[in-house]
Amino acid sequence: MPRGEIPLDPEGGPLFEFAARLRKLREQAGRPTYRDLAQHAHYGIAALSSAAAGRQLPSLAVTLAYVRACGGDEREWKVIWQRTAAACTGLDTSAGTGDKDRQRSGTKPPYAGLAAFGQADAGFFFGREKLTGTLVEHMKEKRLLVLFGASGSGKSSVLRAGVLPAFPGIAPLIFTPGPHPLEECATRLAARAGTAPGPVQSALMAGPHAFHRTVRQILAQEGEQEQRGGQEQETGFATHDLLVVVDQFEEVFTLCRDARERERFVAALVHAAHAPDSRTRVALAVRSDFYTHCTRLPALVDALPRAQHPIGPMTAEELRAAIVQPAARSRLTVESALLTALTADAHGRPGTLPLLSHALLETWKRRRGNALTLAGYRAAGGFEGALTQTAEEFHHALNGNRQTAARRLFLRLVALGEGTEDTKRRVRRQELDDGPDTEFVLEQATRARLLTVDGNHVEIAHEALIRCWTRLGDWLEEDRGQERLQRALTEATTLWESLEHDSDILYRGARLAAAKDLPPQVLTARERAFLHASQAAAQQAQQQDCRRLRRLRRLAAALVVLLACAMTAAGLAVQAQNTLTRQRNETVALRAADEAVHLSPYKPSLAIQIALASYRQTAQKRTRDALLSALSVASIGARATSPKLIGHASADHTPTGHTPAVTADGRTLAMANGSQIVLWDMKNPRKPRRLGTIAAGAAGLGPIQFTPDGTTLLGVDSDRTLRLWDVTDPNHPAPQSKRPTEHADAVYSIAVNHNSRIAATSSYDDTVRLWDIADPRHPRMLDKLTGHARNVKPVAFSPDGKTLASGSDGHDIRIWDVTDPRHVTLIDILEGHRDAVDALAYSPDGRTLLSGSDDHTAKLWDISDLPRHRELGELARHADIVTSVAFASHGRTAATVGIDGVVNVWDVTNPTHPAQLAHLTNPRGTVKEVRYLKADGTFLTVTAHFSVQIWYTDLDRVLADACNRVRGTISRTQWTRHFPRLDYTPPCPHDT
Predict the structure, then answer these.
(1) Three-class SS of residue 433?
(2) Relative to the CA of 31, which of 80, 451, 729, 778 has its CA 20 to 30 Å away?
(3) Top-ranked range on mean pLDDT: pick from 372-386, 676-690, 942-956
(4) In which element (H, E) is residue 441 found?
(5) How far apart are CA 890 and CA 697, in angstroms?
(6) What pTM was estimated for this model as a whole?
(7) Radius of gyration over alpha carbons of the chain, in Å?
(8) Contact present, 442 and 452 (Cβ < 8 Å)
(9) Number of Cβ within a 10 Å radius of residue 971
(10) At 817, phi and psi to the nearest 5?
(11) What is the pLDDT of residues 341-350, one digit of tens each?
């Protein structure tokens, strides 16, 4: 059962009211789980649950995604969010204010402090009118602006509060690049377009045209929405173009480590701005000390002469306007002595605007009546001292443990410069420790406006803090070397977690020794877990090396003794040497076999040759399984399996999708992908041929199934509607009928009996429903089966159609007599699994039932003499949930797959003692479905990444066919890397 939400604080003010309204909206939507909301909103569970927690105001993008997933009115909620943001901005939460200040906390400050001015602050943004006018004209005449300026020169503010308000009528796209700019860009575009970010990111990686196409799609959708809503827009380009603002563009150099991703990101922006039919106007804000870096980007260097514009220090008159006008707008006065002091301190000094704004904010907090005074300015610490004083007051208010936590936190939020100044670093909340000290420090630093929190990200409010806070500068100088080590460790930990704890990512050798010197208290729990795993792997490797060394020493000693013996012992010495060589070669071959499996999705040709050479060197079960795995994974090509290229596989050559259905003869495959089904000719599994396509409307498809005669395809969509299609001619499938299933919750599975006349659907509403589909144009419900205590998942008909098996989250399997489908009776209940039952399959003779469960096991049941049954054998070789099971058509073998990425093939000739025939591995992780294609053992699986893989278990066929899959012979360098000290003998010596 999901945990209940924490009660809201009635004293929470605007945040309490905002969170309460979000929770009420979720209640009205039927109280979906946050996991379901995350699937529809394309944001993480943590981000969505935090939005309704009442602790902080979520970003507008997260709010609208939450509202969209619950079916709310986005326009209404945009207004609600803006009002709440204005109310929260007006709260004076700074530490140390007196009672009088707290009484006046409802007044919005006229100055932004360290934060940049936003669009909502345009009414308080003064002093840059001339520059704003120039930039607005530039954006109207040209489509690309690169704004260079020193840190603290006001680049972000002039774009957000100056330029953007000059173009009303459309919400701009504003973001910072971060460590993965293409991913960040794809996420923002997908949220705006209402699609999943994965395909958008894949398209951006494939070429620079994708950004331009996606923008046109977004504008077309928004135009249609406005026409349907009867809205009229003002004239001007803003109604037809999208304004894209990339703030802190220097992050593509300071945080992004992938040069190719950096160049693709920039190329996409420049192409979108310069395309002949461009609908995009792009503004980049870049620190001036990164100008040289920009000239190294091929896509940007040619555009710079016409696109660049510098931003310099403010003149004295501009400074006076920036100081006096916001106060006047709030009906405040500025003492002439204060105006003179501020102008003198700030004039002619680049990068001082954050210091000026922060000093004014602190002076405003110490105002006397409606006057900002020189005395208040001096009490705040003066021009540079105000920021230092705020930071020091925050630091001194912490106890010893929290000061240590503050040091660790701020050091993590700084990107160390490489020939440039240090810059701020935007990090995810999950990178930080979630202990109470860290949470308290983060909250207090945010209240003091030293840090900003946006959704799941944290960053320093402005880089001026890095320059002016002496304590932070001292920390950086003391720990600079340590920080570089720790930053590398953080990146390695993130990569390790993203690859599901792949042991190849773990530290070894010098890197591990250096990382072990880091103080434990500066590491997060994630980083400590990574180091612990690295040390364990290193110790295991060292133990293996020691064992090998001891074995080698013993063998060498034996050789010495044998050499000293009589000539009759010479033969024994030769034999010992051969044993040593054989053992060494065996170790090399086993290690290479494992490497081949990991390489197969990315370098299939090389992986096949390594696996084949390993098997020929050492023919045993482990190398045989590696060869079968490598060839099977590589069989669909690197283009379809590479993580960077998923979604780009040719739609005409490679099946993709989330749910498969296979005809009884194994010759036709149907793949459901979203709201579309594609039919494939699988007579030759190596060369699938695309047939017809079925469009199921706007609703996404769930389970699908062919009738045994192969003439009809059934499916249930996300609206719980049963659909039937005529696939007699698979090149031209035609819809036959559709009707509501009347299930009260999602439909999990669908099955059809042997004569293609009866179908069954199972649902999370704890029921199974039987359908008469003898006339596919008019399906009729026959009976409703109840009795399961929790979600009903798999259903399967026996081969003779007389019984139906169903499994559920209640850990049981129920066998029903469906001889009379209008009056179904319960025959037996199979109990033995310790967790939910996820998969069921009858043997071809109907005497045995195979089940898969969340308890990591698959079980065989004897059901030949119902209502008596008995458990035959347990297949307990999976490390996680068993997601799918299947029998081969001859009934002698079965396959089980699971979330652990393992594909097991079993000999079930003797079901009481099932034997493992093959232990295959999908290196890319979770396998969701398995279906047999042919009696020779060929079967297909569907992964969590929607890719389809064909698996071969006939070793002789694989050995004969392996070299036909190779494109280019393994080089001597590659051979030496994977087979050290073995003679170069490529298994496929010529190009094929």
Answers:
(1) coil
(2) 80
(3) 676-690
(4) helix 436-447
(5) 38
(6) 0.45
(7) 33
(8) no
(9) 12
(10) -90, 110
(11) 888 877 876 6
